[in-house]
């Protein structure tokens, strides 16, 4: 059933105005501001009132008012426009949606878990309305408001459901938005065995490596499943440990599951304001995390000069760190890190970077994704390689201890140098 989006837009404005008026009245009366949940409940009452007024108006004008189903759809649309993500909400509510790519308000392409790519209905009536929607999300998602305008045409943020949104404007003909769904929020290593990402042997190995406080770098291409694997490995960390996560935009959400990780501090990079002031970089946050008594530091995604700070942290007694990085193979990770290190303030030469890598990283885990056309085009994600760092001799010395098996999934390939240590945590060949 289609929803009248013009009505939703009109009612959203009406309810928003009434909500703002109530806030002003509460403030003038010296009452404490409503909590987020109280505000949502009050908004639902306002939505019901506005829809009731609309129905009476339609009857008075001799027209047929919305029936119960239409009224329910209107109420959901108004609430999503006020507190959710507007007309994107049905797509985010669909558990089978993996990615949403928007090339202008009316060019919406959706990738589903079964491999389908479908062009869906517009998410806004105009590009201007799409930009306005993103600006509203940027103002209320994350730890601080993030600008999205001509002066700040790039935006990355985490939506309330955990999905990652990336948007650009003015550097392309029409505003462009990509949303990568977080379909597996509370995920465990056993779940990844169940969906074919890991073999039971590899799952036991990685769980033992986390328990033994090995520093692990997870690599792969965009949307390969690096963050999902990082979450699963983080959930192998005992709940007594204090975790500090450092991210460009909050995404990991480890602090959302207090039963698994009761002691978590989540840091988010802060962008500069319109005057160019107030920026707090990833490198600064990694340095700050070391002063916050962490058991482990988890860096959501390495994309720049924070790599040197992170590697230094790994060699200063903060063992058991986890991070992700973009790379095309487990071997390429070392060159990618060296490239980032060259761009850092320290300007580390290649040789020094390789020595730092060898002293910091224990294992590199590589995740791949493939469209399995033999199974109807279903997208497969799996770990295909695990590389152990063995030392440095002008370059990083490493050995592939798990290599692609017949189906591509990593299988035991070579002895692990620290096998005796890992055996104490439940892993054996």
Q: Which features characterize this protein?
A:
429 residues, alpha/beta, Beta-Lactamase, Rossmann fold, nine-stranded mixed beta sheet, 13 helices
Give an overview in words.
36% of the residues lie in helices and 22% in strands. A hairpin with a 7-residue loop joins strand 5 (164-168) and strand 6. The model has no long low-confidence stretch (mean pLDDT 86). The chain folds into 3 domains: 1-83; 93-183, Beta-Lactamase (2-Layer Sandwich); 189-423, Rossmann fold (3-Layer(aba) Sandwich). By secondary structure, it is an alpha/beta fold. Helix 1 crosses helix 2 (36-60), helix 1 (5-28) packs across helix 3 (68-83) and helix 2 (36-60) packs across helix 3 (68-83). The strands form 2 sheets. Strands 9-8-10-11-7-12-13-14-15 form a 9-stranded mixed sheet, sandwiched between helices. A 6-stranded antiparallel sheet has the order 3-2-1-6-5-4. The protein is built from 13 helices and 15 strands.
Give the topology, please.
Elements: H1 5-28, H2 36-60, H3 68-83, H4 89-93, E1 97-103, E2 108-112, E3 117-120, H5 127-140, E4 154-158, E5 164-168, E6 176-180, H6 189-194, H7 200-211, E7 216-220, H8 226-234, E8 243-247, E9 264-268, H9 282-289, E10 296-302, H10 306-314, E11 322-326, H11 332-343, H12 350-360, E12 363-372, E13 378-392, E14 396-404, E15 410-412, H13 419-423
Parallel strand pairs: 7-11, 7-12, 8-9, 8-10, 10-11
Antiparallel strand pairs: 1-2, 1-6, 2-3, 4-5, 5-6, 12-13, 13-14, 14-15
Helix pairs in contact: 1-2, 1-3, 2-3, 9-10, 10-12, 11-12
Order of helices and strands: HHHHEEEHEEEHHEHEEHEHEHHEEEEH
Q: What would the average pLDDT be, to the nearest integer?
A: 86
The CATH architecture term of the largest domain is: 3-Layer(aba) Sandwich
Radius of gyration (CA) equals 25 Å
* Count of DSSP H/I helices: 13
Quote the distance from N terminus to C terminus.
Answer: 56 Å
Q: SS-based structural class?
A: alpha/beta
- Widest sheet: strand order? 9-8-10-11-7-12-13-14-15
CATH class of the largest domain: Alpha Beta
The domain tally reads 3
At the third CATH level, what is the topology name of the largest domain?
Rossmann fold
Strand content: 15-25%
Quantity of strands, as a count: 15
């Amino acid at each position: 059933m289609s929803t009248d989006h013009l009505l939703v837009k009109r009612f959203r404005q009406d309810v928003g105005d009434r909500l703002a008026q109530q806030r002003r009245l509460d403030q003038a009366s010296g009452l404490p501001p409503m909590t987020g949940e109280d505000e949502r409940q009050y908004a639902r009452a306002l939505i019901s009132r506005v829809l009731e007024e609309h129905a009476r108006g339609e009857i008075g004008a001799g027209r047929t008012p919305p029936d119960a189903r239409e009224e329910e759809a209107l109420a959901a649309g108004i609430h999503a426009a006020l507190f959710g993500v507007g007309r994107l909400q049905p797509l985010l509510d669909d558990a089978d949606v993996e990615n949403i790519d928007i090339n202008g308000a009316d060019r919406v392409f959706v990738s589903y878990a079964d491999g389908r790519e479908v062009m869906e209905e517009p998410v806004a009536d105009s590009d201007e309305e799409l930009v306005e929607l993103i600006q509203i999300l940027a103002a209320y998602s994350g730890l601080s408001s993030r600008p999205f305008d001509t002066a700040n045409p790039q935006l990355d943020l985490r939506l309330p459901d955990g999905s990652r949104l990336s948007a650009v404007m003015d550097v392309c003909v029409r505003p462009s938005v990509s949303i990568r769904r977080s379909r597996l929020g509370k995920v465990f290593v056993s779940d990844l065995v169940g969906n074919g990402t890991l073999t039971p042997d590899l799952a036991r190995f990685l769980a033992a490596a986390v328990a033994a406080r090995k520093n692990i770098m997870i690599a792969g291409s965009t949307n390969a499943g690096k963050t999902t694997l990082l979450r699963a490995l983080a959930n192998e960390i005992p709940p007594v440990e204090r975790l500090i996560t450092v991210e460009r935009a909050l995404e990991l959400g480890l602090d959302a599951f207090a039963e698994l990780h009761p002691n978590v501090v989540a840091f988010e990079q802060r962008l500069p304001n319109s005057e160019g002031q107030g920026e707090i970089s990833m490198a600064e946050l990694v340095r700050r995390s070391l002063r916050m008594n962490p058991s482990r530091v988890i860096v959501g995604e390495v994309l720049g000069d924070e790599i040197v700070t992170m590697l230094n942290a790994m060699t200063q007694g903060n063992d058991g760190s986890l991070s992700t990085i973009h790379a095309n193979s487990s071997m390429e990770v070392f060159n990618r890190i060296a490239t980032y290190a060259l761009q850092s303030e320290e300007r580390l030469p290649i040789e020094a970077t390789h020595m730092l890598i060898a002293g910091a990283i224990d294992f590199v885990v590589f995740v791949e994704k493939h469209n399995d056309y033999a199974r109807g085009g279903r997208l497969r994600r799996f770990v295909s390689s695990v590389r152990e760092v063995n030392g440095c001799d002008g370059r990083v010395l490493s050995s592939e201890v798990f290599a692609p098996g017949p189906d591509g999934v990593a299988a035991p390939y070579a002895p692990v140098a620290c096998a005796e240590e890992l055996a104490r945590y439940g892993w054996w060949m």
